[in-house]
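queue> holo job accepted (zinc ion)
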Amino acid sequence: MTEPILVAIAWPYANSEIHVGNVTGSHLPGDIFARYQRMRGRDVVMVSGSDSHGTPITITADASNSTPMEVYQRFHQTFLDLFMQLGISYDLFTSTHTENHFNVSQKIFLALLENGFLYKESQQQWYSTAQSRFLPDRYVEGTCYVCDYTQARSDQCDRCGTLLEPAKLINPRSKIDGSTPELRETEHYYLDLGKLQPEITDFLKQRSSYWRQNVMRQSLGQIEADSLRGRPITRDLDWGIPVPLEAEKGKCLYVWFEAVIGYLSATIEWASITDQPEAWNKWWHDKASKTFYFIGKDNIPFHAIIWPGQLIGLDTKFDELMGNSVKAPLVLPYDVPANEFMNLEDQKISGSRHWAVWAQDFLTRYDPDPLRYYLTVNMPETRDTDWDWEDFYKRNNDELVATWGNLVNRVLSFAAKHWEGVVPEPGELTSLDKDLIAAIEQGFETVGNEMEAVHLRGALGEAMRLASEVNKYLDTTAPWTAIKTDRAAAGRAIYTALRAIDSLKILLAPFLPFTSQKLHQFMGYNTTLFGTQFISKEEDSLGTHGVLRYNSDSAAGRWEPSKLQAGHHLDKPEPLFRKLDPVIIEEERARLGKPHQ
Ligand SMILES: [Zn+2]
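queue> job finished
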């Protein structure tokens, strides 16, 4: 039986495009990890989707004179296109605005309610008499009672940074029509995190030996410093998932509460779309299942404290309400390898100031693998990192082109020229040849160990070090000169180098899937290393939503060393990577801070 692995990636908010910081923060590490695990033969499901509810989307809609549905769908489509182009191989990338997600979220609400982990409490909230509705905090502005700033949001002042008490705001007004709102009492449901605290603490302690330190510090450390308090999970809003109680008309589930449920609901949707409706149980009920959550550090409390708390509180009640054949507790997160942030040219990435490298815009000028490469060598696994255009240019030319691409091209072209594109007969291997082959084969373990521990930078660094070893080997054996005097020695070196390259192709494939596939073809194979991605349309009572999917039927790549034999036919090679001109550094820097087309 193969180990079930769920790769759960943070749900991007559908009111902005995706920039390189988002890609390296969650989507790319999740994809590299999933591709590796699939090659190991494990049962991988990788899910995410567009977070389509909440006030930022309704505000964007109001500002652009469109509906929240239109705003979410516009960005959702750009996400699907981007992940296709960048090879982020989601088994399902869906959205929170689906009938399935509504149903699963409502059942979770009811299960927590029945199990006694929700309570009601009243709070004061702004109410618009003009519109006969409650206004979310972000819809009300006024004068800050600390610094007199006249455009403070009712819950926070953007000038002095104070978290404000809404009731004390001076001259409150509605951002929709300028009318004066009044404070009214409203009742909301709270998740009783205090009651769940002992079990959440145990859950964290059981994982403290292998989690990233910053994640443990931000979760267990925080609980130990200050105990958990209840958190409201409903809001007076009409865009979102209705609270499934007759008496609570007009209230929605708070977006932070329902978005994390997406990991579960998306697995259920994936099972249903692939005509195996019970299959999701394997990832959510099988004790051997491991679930990995790829997120940015701003999301740690939601994934390391609150989501585990929600899951613990369900016990078997969720299965009962769903009418599921299995009735068991749900699998808790195995690891939450949260990343720090990536900055851009030493400044914080900011969409509103256009200080960002937008992933889709980038792909209009460059190929996907150089982006994946640069974002992996610079992945903010343990500290914030920086996107620097000069560094991108150097890494592309000195590492991708010089160390790896030229190695491939040199060896394959030489084999084509002198052996008519056939892998030469090696004869008896020398200790030098055997040492290289052994070092590369050892890489399946060393790179693999780094992958298992989600040290993706380390894994790529080790694979590239092995590529340098092949270059050193060729410097020593020099088949280019040996061919004139000792054809057998040259053939032996080329055979050895080809075998090493054929193995390196696999070690690098999770990072560089597009060029590894190209190389696979140059090496004369007619199979594909990975499965295929495609977009399909799904319909339900809420409308049509596009989803990104992955079909692994054709995936032939295995995490094992090359078995290349003499006599195997090779194909004509082409350069894998494009050498960049230094002029791009200034051109790209000049784009920063300006709106892109
Ligand atoms: Zn202020």
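queue> The first helix runs from residue 20 to 39.
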